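Let's see one such:

===
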Amino acid sequence: MLRLPILLGSALALLSGGAFAHYPTLDCKQIDQSIQCVAAYSDGSVAFNETVQALTYEDELITSLTTDDSGMIRLPTPSGEYYLLFDPGHEDPAEFDYAEF
């Protein structure tokens, strides 16, 4: 009888969303007058066909790009202060601020 609660608890733990949780990441570098970023997840998988936005500090959209099959985007370096946002819609979004260059 004691085995049933243990088995049910184990099954519940394995099937819970927390067991498979991963968060978005955004790794960017500046190359000449452009920016190259790779959007991915903490489990190592790339985020292909996902949206990455460049926004001003006032949250005005500068541009919106879609990642390629390797999770990469490229864009000309925006002028002024900005940040890049990768928000796949779950967990916390990944941000990369221009000051990090």
